[in-house]
Amino acid sequence: MTTPAAEEKRVALAAVAGAHGIKGELRLKLFAEGLDSLKGAKTLYLGGEKRKLVSVRAGGKAVIARFEGVADRTAAEGLRGSLIEVEREALPALEEGEYYFSDLVGLPVVDDGGAAIGTVVTVENFGASDIIEIEKPGGKRFMVPLIPAAVPEWDHEKLVVSADFVDG
Question: How confident is the model at residue 8 (pLDDT cuts 50, 70, 90)?
Answer without folding.
Answer: low
